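As noted in the main text, all predictions were made from sequence alone. Below is one such record, for Impact RWD domain protein.
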Amino acid sequence: MAEVINTENEEDLQSQIEEVEALSAIYGDEWCVIDEASRIFCIKISDDLEEPKLKACLQIILPPDYPSTAPPIYQINASWLRGPERAKLANSLEDLYVQHAGESILYLWVEKVREFLVEKSHSAETVDQPEKVNLTAEEEVDDGEDIPDFNTLKLNTESAHLFMDHGNDEEVPPIKHGSAITDRRSTFQPHLAPVVTPRQVKMVLEKLYENKKIASATHNIYAYRIYCEDKHSFLQDCEDDGETAAGGRLLHLLQILDVRNVMVVVSRWYGGILLGPDRFKHINNCARNILVEEGYAASTVRQSLGLLLIQEWKSEKKILK
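Prediction:
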């Protein structure tokens, strides 16, 4: 059996090498090798206009069993891309993978992203500087090239499991909405749902985005942890949705609380006033409150964690000074 697996991996590796060579020839300088040994790449994509309005960076990890049995692991970096639109684009990439399972898929993915950018550029909703749409001043970036953050990409490798379960027999888990926190006109509201499969994570996000108010939030940060009893391990992931490092902090909170089979989403509506590190405090406080309210964390743990987080915020402020 081991010899068969090795043969398959060799065939996959050869397919990857040929695909990467082809993409490099097609896209030239737009194609970047981040870490060849780890099979990490990225490609800069823009619309087809003479003066591109929209840009995105598609970061890719090729697992050993791609393309035969596993999809590429990906992350889309685009400061203007938010909640429902990000979900729509991700779903289109996943649909492409399902339609072409077992085949090399990267070229189709790149062109699908480009098609999405062109449609967005030509839509009536496009503004003169779409990269700045719905950004907080804290998160504004220049209009230059996105710098690949492959450390974050590695964190999100578990998202590959989202491709693997396309059953239609699962119901949307019940979603609880927690109390909002408002500070200097910015509002933070948590949402919680029990989840036991990655498919349910997607369903919860899709259901939340049906709410126009939630869909219009400046950021919808989320994290989840699912305990896999057969492997005695956790399937976990997070998303910043433009609020850099917020998703990782939220996942860290879930890990400290040792919660399982739950996802938390925190919506933030930016009020126009900079909050600095306080925004992270509000995001985690919201999440912690709803976890306690729904019985996922004890109040005594909540108090000790509060002291820990206060120390973190103080340390950060000292560094910023």
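The domain at 2-135 is CATH 3.10.110.10 (Ubiquitin Conjugating Enzyme). The chain has two domains: 2-135, 176-320. These features were considered when defining construct boundaries for the mutagenesis experiments described in Section 2.9.
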